[in-house]
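Running log. JK asked me to keep both predictions on one page so they can be read side by side. First protein, sequence followed by its tokens:
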Amino acid sequence: MVGLTILKLGGSAVTKKEKPFTPNVNAINRLAGEIRKAKVKPLLIIHGGGSFGHPVAKKYKIKEGYRTPAQALGFSKTHYAMIKLNKLILNSLIRQGIPAVSIQPSACIVTKNGRIKYMEIKPLLNLLEIGFTPILYGDAVIDLAKGFTILSGDQLASSLAVNLNAKRIIFGVDVDGLFTADPKLYPTAKLFKELSLGKLRKLKRNFRKAKVTDVTGGMLGKILELTPAIEKGVPAVIVNAAKPGRVYKALRGEQVTGTIIKAR
């Protein structure tokens, strides 16, 4: 779709991750205000699970797939948790006068071994063409190989960016961008202002050689999920959604503190 912007709001940006089932109401309302003020069309929003979806999914091991009948209830609880968070965000957007419409990923997406195998995007495309702002989220979904699994909002953002020929992806997280190390643990870590996909992959290889987990605080792995979209020429901009005005500036295309990732 011509000029489409995909805004991915991480769970850390819309919930208080240290407190299960606790939304960050102030952040949600502020972000809804920034989205309204930016007046970007067409816009598609995706949000993560944060303290809503993750604790339940982890407890019942939903990502690993179907193993016991008891997990069925866990699947339902995980999905319900995401619906609750989605309703809070949806309500905030509507109160700002944004014609947001929720789309349930588990009703239109099937995965195989954790990767999207099929997605019905026609209703989503029609909503965008009319002028609505669709809002999706990471969800528990049916998987052809595992029975079910967790579909991350990151993979969803990348897949939709490719299928809808998006102009850009804005990634709102709880840090300023991608750093040389986890800035929450290493204050001297340096921010990458711009990266090519090649440099991003090299960074990942260096971490593996050093036999360390993603020292950027898990951010690198999440961003690498966007590789298919970036390869297609869709740039990704990582900004700190916890800092007032950052998402607004990114939506407006203004200069903003963050990391830009391009194919080359």
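And the second, directly underneath as requested:
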Amino acid sequence: MAEVPRLRPVSDCGLLVEYAEALSDGVHAAVLGLDRVLAADPLPGQMETVPAYVNLLVLFDPLLTDHAAVAAGVRTRLGRMQAERSAGTAHLVDVVYDGPDLAEVARRTGLSPETVIATHLSADYSVYLYGFAPGYAYLGGVPEPIQLPRKEAPVRGVPAGSVIVAGGQCIVTTLTMPTGWWVIGRSPVTILRPEGMLFAVGDRVRFRRTKP
């Protein structure tokens, strides 16, 4: 169970609930637990909650409430929350492993390209948050043998649908943008959809190899 979080005002309409400085399964489970409680029993004036790795941002209407009232409501709900991780929805995402960086990832990790692919396929990934660009779901769970730091310089024009990794994280990109992450494949699965995101924070993802 995560420690009691710190509550910190953000601008005139937000309260940041901070559990820790470093990510762990227990901390993120606590973030998601509070998010579920606030969804089921919203605070007066609550407008939105935004879960992240180690904290939850609670946005509110400053004409209806204030930081002190929101903080008091959060503390009350903290006593009722369950920090156990929700099972979430399971997703299976197809990948064609023909990324331009696959061979370099193999070289830097001392593995063969096929072993890099098999290692990436072996993991269960968790959707930690959305950030940086629309539809960019940050998936934690990249196995340690294929973890690499970001490139020293980003590459322009990386196409939407690229499967990219850096450190312990993986993203299926939704826009053509620069990135300093390693491009190991591409996916036909659309994450950013008119009706909303394919994944919810707390969902689980596995990858499945497919042919071009």
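Observation for JK regarding the second prediction: Residues 45 and 65 are 6 Å apart (CA to CA).
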